[in-house]
Amino acid sequence: MLHLKRFVRRFRRLPRSDHRFDYLSDKQYAALKFWDKEIDNFIAWYNGEISEHYQSPAPSEAAKVKDYDQRLNAIWTWVRRDSSKYPNALRIRRDHFVGKTVLDIGCGPIPYLLAFEDCQLIGLDNLVNEYREVGYPLDEYSPRLKYVAAPGEQIPLPTSSVDAVISVNAIDHVDKFATTAREVIRVLKPDGIVRMQIHYHNPTLTEPWKLDDAVVLQSFAPLGLNKIHEEPYTGNTVMTVWST
């Protein structure tokens, strides 16, 4: 995501002050510190200390969740405010996956998956355990959302076990794009659904791939993907949406 790229440009000049995570790669640590900082941003937005966050105005008192401590209230309020992110990004309805099991590659710590109705959800991210440690309530979001701590290159699910695979501006973060594509193909059921928003950009620390149509088509060739949308994105980059 663009905001993560901007953070990384600043972060790369900073020392590792939190030694709990010395075992992480520079790439993983940069991503985790971005999400750690986001908690502070959510709280500031919730309290009206900043007027907006990613162009979303600070919530009114009536719009605030108030059932938990300040951190959880802020996160839950943000989740509810931004609940249409995934359907909008993938250009589908909330009921698109009814009755199915959906795997999200690179889900992050915000449960945008919950926008999809009446389906079972699996969020895959190699920083799941670290998200919990910095304060995200992953296990409290919903009983139908299960988090799996693993990289896209090694999905710990049986072959042909999910009905749909999605990714929202995240699959370009993986270390090995072609390997991740093979794993997506492996875990997807025959005639399963793939829907991915894929960002084309120059490589960065956290997003190391310079992708284009040819790379996507070659990597996912057995699925016969179609590009259903393309639009200019910030900084002379391109955002695309692909579907089976």
List the helices and strands and how they pair.
Layout lengths: L1 H10 L14 H21 L5 E2 L2 E2 L12 H12 L3 H6 L10 E5 L14 E6 L2 H7 L10 E5 L12 E7 L8 H11 E13 L12 H7 L6 E8 L3 E7 L1
Parallel strand pairs: 3-4, 3-6, 4-5, 6-7
Antiparallel strand pairs: 1-2, 7-9, 8-9
Helix pairs in contact: 1-2, 2-3
Quick summary:
With 244 residues, the protein is an alpha/beta fold. The protein folds into two domains: 2-81, no CATH class; 91-243, Vaccinia Virus protein VP39 (Rossmann fold). Helices cover 30% and strands 23% of the residues.
Describe what this molecule looks like in 3D:
By secondary structure, this protein is an alpha/beta fold. The chain is 30% helix and 23% strand. β1 and β2 form a beta hairpin. Mean pLDDT is 93; it is low at 4-14. α1 crosses α2 and α2 (26-46) crosses α3 (70-81). The strands form 2 sheets. It has a 7-stranded mixed beta sheet. A two-stranded antiparallel ribbon has the order 1-2. The protein folds into 2 domains: 2-81, no CATH class; 91-243, Rossmann fold (3-Layer(aba) Sandwich), CATH 3.40.50.150. 32% of the residues are buried.
Class by alpha and beta content: alpha/beta
Note the run of SSEs as H and E: HHEEHHEEHEEHEHEE
CATH superfamily of the largest domain: Vaccinia Virus protein VP39
Strand line-up of the largest beta sheet: 5-4-3-6-7-9-8
Counting structural domains, the number is 2
Rounded to an integer, what's the Rg over CA atoms? 18 Å
